[in-house]
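subagent[fold] <- orchestrator: predict structure for attached chain, return tokens only, no commentary.
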Amino acid sequence: MNTLCQRFAALLTAGLLVSAADGREQPPAIGVAKPFALPAKEEMTLANHFKATLVPFGTVPKVTIVLTIATGNIADGATTGLADLTAELMKEGAGKYDAAGAARRAADMGGTLSISAGLEETTLEIDVLAEHASEAINLIADTVRHPHLPKSELPRLKADLSRASSVKRSTARGLAAEAYAKLLWGNHPYGKASPTDTELTAITDKNIADFVSTEFGAQRAHLYVAGLFDSALIKQAITAEFGDWQTGPVARATQIEGSRQGQITFIDRPNATQTTLMFGLPVLAPKAPHFIDFAVTNTLFGGSLLSRLDQNLREDKGWTYGASSRITPYAAGIAIWTLATDVSTPDSAPAVQEIFKELARLRAEPATISELNSIQNYRAGTFVIGASSRGGIISQLAYLEQQQLPETWLTDYVAKVHAVTPEQVRAAALEQLTPEHMTLVVVGDLKSIKDPILALPSLQDIRIAD
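subagent[fold] -> orchestrator:
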């Protein structure tokens, strides 16, 4: 979706579009938001602790199937990039099919099998015609349980991953994200970035085979099926394909807290015409009682096209194409709040000053009712729209699983968003968005921007990181 369409959708959701003042009839007022209704679903757990969730949904004869496995880069250890390389090699055939055969098999079912490794989850997903749902489950089972992992393909896949890492590190955002993660998490897997060529070279086919055999297992897996399907046939396929899978280990428990030491680091990009700014700190996780208060607060501050930060830096000042903030939850019951923007080089120090000014205003003054209502409409609307598809429902259910949240977290979400008050927004900002605890990364032409930024009063108590 292009930027213009995004802005239109945001304004429409927020209820801010009105007819032109030419006598035409005005649109009806926005009504009270309806509670989100979670579709009826079935849960099943096999003897080996493999879990599955079946959600009959929609009228289109298609089915989305997603398998999540609770492991990823968190298990890389000294071999950074192992989970990513494993996911790529798993695409090279499984069971009785080679890579081309598996791709044709998926295409014949009307879909494409995707495999990706994240920080804490490895995910396999396919969207197929309804009559092929059982066959698609077989394909996923083959891929995760009987992958070929051909050693001959490793050099090519390593080269691909190396190029992707190089491209990422060639961008200001990539450099900022790498430094930001390192400052927040240190040597923990959360703090590791894209693998280096040396790290990739060290990964062997045995490392990958061991990863599959030791990290994958029924106890870490959850299969989600959403769409039009025969429940009895799906249950039969799940039992047949996964019932004898090794139980494997329980999900890994992570105990870590991100840095709350106020710190700033600079990365030089000589003669750069733009500066990348990335700020953030650990915040409360979704399971916390007041998380939705904080989520609304973030949306008001920088989490949408209607946010104060975007309106200030882009609409009013014209210093950036966009400024945004987000909350990133981890499976360990923690979360990080991150603000990121790219501004023109001459406006770098003024932009940092404005960011801290907006933070101070958010912490000092309650939002107006009209401003908050727009944000609440936007947040509730995008939530409902996002959960109104097969993939969207699966994403929400997987989120509940990862964050160990009850179903009421979804069904009560819209009402709780609309119940947030201006004073609760201010309280959330006061408690969570503490500038003195933030990690700041600045990437740009340091000869032009470093001294003016360090001279800002807001940064006088923040140390320069090594």
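orchestrator: received. Logging for downstream: The mean pLDDT is 92. The first strand starts at residue 42 and ends at 45.
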